Amino acid sequence: MGAATPQDNHNARVSDRLDTSVPHPARRYNYWLGGKDNFAVDRRSGDQIAAVYPAIRTLARENRAFLQRAVRYLAADVGIRQFLDIGTGIPSADNTHEVVQAVAPDARVLYVDNDPMVLVHARALLTSSQAGATAYLDADLRDPARILAAGELHRTLDLSRPVALILVAVAHFLTDADRPYDVVARLVDALPSGSYLVVSHVTTDLMSAEIVDLWTAEVVAGRMKQDAVARSRAEFARFFAGLDLVEPGIVPVTEWRAEVPESERSPLTEASIYGAVARKP
Q: In CATH, what number is assigned to the domain containing residue 258?
């Protein structure tokens, strides 16, 4: 038999980490967006959530649209040329680097995620304009020190110049025990003045009381596992302590610099997720 190739070793490492018996948020999100990179366990989990909150697919689409509007604004209107996108997820249409490099071909993007399926698809994320750069780091948001020390980060981004830190639909997977505000502050503290923070986060604030009660009952009964922590507007606002919010401030994602008339937007009850962008003074 021939010697194992680097690609063989890479695939073996991914296979060793890939647990198809436990749903993963990145694969479940991929399922809600109509993707194919998910397993039966992810689809079951996604369907359980959809049975309680039927608008979950709308929420996923609106959250994705918020990401694209936010990074386009930062590249086109603010002039940001460096992006640190943590919680990347499985590649879909109009990823961060595609959106920002369409505006600024010299933009540089580092993607970070801890899902082996995202690692498998990393090559799709590493396409870049010749003037810019993209890279992928296999790491966990819960370990900001590792992210900040990684060679991939320092080869891709210059932390002496402004960076946009993107935490879209990922901070809600940090429990209180994970010290979410400390984690985000650690990352923001490492960035220079003029950097930006983009966050979206699920909430029950915009859901009907009936759905909140049903959700709680399903979790308490053990019929549904809750791996995301819904936080109130006040709790969400704590992520931006010491930063200057960009207009329109903290709003449902459908209302952040919306590009369609209000009459054509998804109802707030169908996209119960806050979004905001803020600048580091």
A: 3.40.50.150
